[in-house]
Design goal:
The chain is α/β, with parallel strands linked by helices. The protein has a single domain, classed as FAD/NAD(P)-binding domain (3-Layer(bba) Sandwich). It contains four helices and twelve strands, in the order βαββααββββαβββββ. Strands 8-2-1-12 form a four-stranded parallel sheet, covered by helices on one side. Strands 3-7-4 form a three-stranded antiparallel sheet. It has a three-stranded antiparallel sheet with strand order 9-10-11, with no helix packed on it. A hairpin with a 5-residue loop joins strand 10 and strand 11. The relative contact order is 0.25.
Length: 160
Amino acid sequence: MPPHVIVVGAGPAGALLAYLLARRALSVTLLERTRDFAREFRGELLMPSGLDALDQTGLWTEVDAVPHVPLRAVEFYLNGVRRLRQEFPAEAFGRRRPRWMSQPELLEMLVAQAARHPGFRFERGATVRGLHEAEGRVRGVRVLQADGSENELDADLVVG
């Protein structure tokens, strides 16, 4: 049986890590305290190096399909008056411009890709209350589930 990993938090780093581990045939449980990524707007500005890193995961087609707006300029306003505008020509960044994208849509895509692997499990509304320890080492996490029940989940490794 492959090692079991619990990843606490389905933000960009946690969701991507869970995908990468599941792709390597590890057993992974991704825990997220919210039930819905879209509970509030969270934008994500991905710089070219971040886009290149996502490309290296083999998910470029999926990342590129997430709705986005290429960064062409930044404007700063103070009391409703534009104080600064900085344009960014395409050649300033090499092959990829920075892009704004909806973080909830990016996270949903990462979780959907991880879910294509049989060892992946995703729990929404699961709040980690603490670590489960035994014999001097971490053995898992204590979780408050969305239904109000509490339980312990065992793991060989906890990341969070």
